[in-house]
Amino acid sequence: MTGLEELEESVRRQVGARLFTVLAWIPERRALRRVHSSHPAEYPVGGEKTVEVAQDWLARCVEARRPYFGRDRAAVREIFADHELIESLGCGSIINVPVVREDEVLGVLNILDAEGSYDEESVAKARSLALLAVPALLQAGAA
Description:
Layout: H1 3-14, E1 19-26, E2 31-37, E3 48-50, H2 55-63, E4 68-70, H3 73-79, H4 83-88, E5 93-101, E6 104-113, H5 120-130, H6 134-142
Antiparallel strand pairs: 1-2, 1-6, 2-3, 4-5, 5-6
Helix pairs in contact: 1-5
């Protein structure tokens, strides 16, 4: 098991997740590259996208290094261009947690489950798990 597979299991146990991905932040291109996915058919590893989500999300999660909590489908639809795919997987609530090391954003954890599955305590648990992604994201950045 890789460190990210172990992290996925911890997230499933402590927070809950139908969909879990880890994205590496590539600041020079303002892009995110997927380095782990619980649903590789829908969200393949290696897939890369320039930040196509709302500017508010980028400002909050990457620039301010604060989690984003989309409590319901409306919040997911407002921020994410791929909301139809997200909903097709039974997800309607999302927690995005920046993975930060020494004030540098290395990436983001994306944790999704059914609408109403998460609360502020879930966000706090997800934040505490984010540090477990640091070694894998450092390695991904070197790749």
